[in-house]
Amino acid sequence: MERPADEAWIPLSAGSQFRVEEYRKPEFEVTVEAAAAETRPGAEVPVEIGAVYFFGAPVADARVSYCIFRTPYTHHFSRPGPFDWLYGPGYGIVHEQPYAPGQELVEEGELTTDADGKARVLLAPPAGEELDFSYDIQVEVMDLARRTIHGAGQVTVTREPFFAAIDADRGFFSPGDRIELEVRAETAGRAPVAADGQLRFYRVQYEDDQEQLTLLAQSPLSLDDHGRAFSEFVPDESGVFRAEFSAPTDSDSDGAVTATREMWVYDDQFPGKRVRFANL
């Protein structure tokens, strides 16, 4: 096949280069240990970076490069699963996971390890934040032989010392059903909290697009050492009902940790005019 005389040919090519180096076992390890894995906004947390050779000697006079990132933190409760030990609590529940925003760089710098192979940095989360945050400390340590090892640590900064949630076996019921509720409380590190609080039940109605709450029942509720308690509610008519658990915190403020759960009760006389639906 002959190429037409007026046709221009442009040669194209693409390629890349890479190096293959011999695998070398790491000769030292890096640890990042915070004085507290959980803290409140405005509370400073010392973070110690350590480097030690596997034969026991400290990695002295090593260059330490560190970056501190933060990401908005949202605590999620999940029912126990058979493979929590492998994947962690709440594995596979994609629809309940929030959108994961990008990390924000809040601090970076360089340090030098001392004679004990230690370097220290102070994490100082600002006070007055309107969100909870997870701080990730990423570290790179280079010894005098220019061998580089990475390490990482994490600190969770929350406005309240623990979280609470109310769970039910389903979301829709009929009048006369016995609704079994489970109240749970735990810290950001999933340690159970034996909280004492109040459990209230409300009827929820809307008049002129304003929420109207009618208190139906109230009783004290104490969670056990596993951070759990159970209660029941039997609705006598259709409509929307709300369970609310409130427990005081040990902080200096007068705030409380609150959890709510909506319960939809339906029959042939379902009062749709008393319910507010979102726009499509």
Could you characterize what this model shows?
With 280 residues, the chain is mainly beta. 1% of the residues lie in helices and 46% in strands. It contains 1 helix and 16 strands. The strands form 4 sheets. The protein has a 5-stranded mixed beta sheet with strand order 2-8-7-4-5, with no helix packed on it. Strands 10-16-15-12-13 form a 5-stranded mixed beta sheet, with no helix packed on it. It starts with 27 loop residues before the first strand and ends in a 15-residue tail after the last strand. The model has no long low-confidence stretch (mean pLDDT 88).
What's the arrangement of secondary structure elements?
Elements: E1 28-34, E2 38-39, E3 45-53, E4 63-72, H1 84-87, E5 104-112, E6 118-123, E7 133-142, E8 148-157, E9 163-168, E10 172-173, E11 179-186, E12 196-207, E13 210-222, E14 228-233, E15 239-248, E16 256-265
Parallel strand pairs: 2-8, 10-16
Antiparallel strand pairs: 1-3, 3-6, 4-5, 4-7, 7-8, 9-11, 11-14, 12-13, 12-15, 15-16
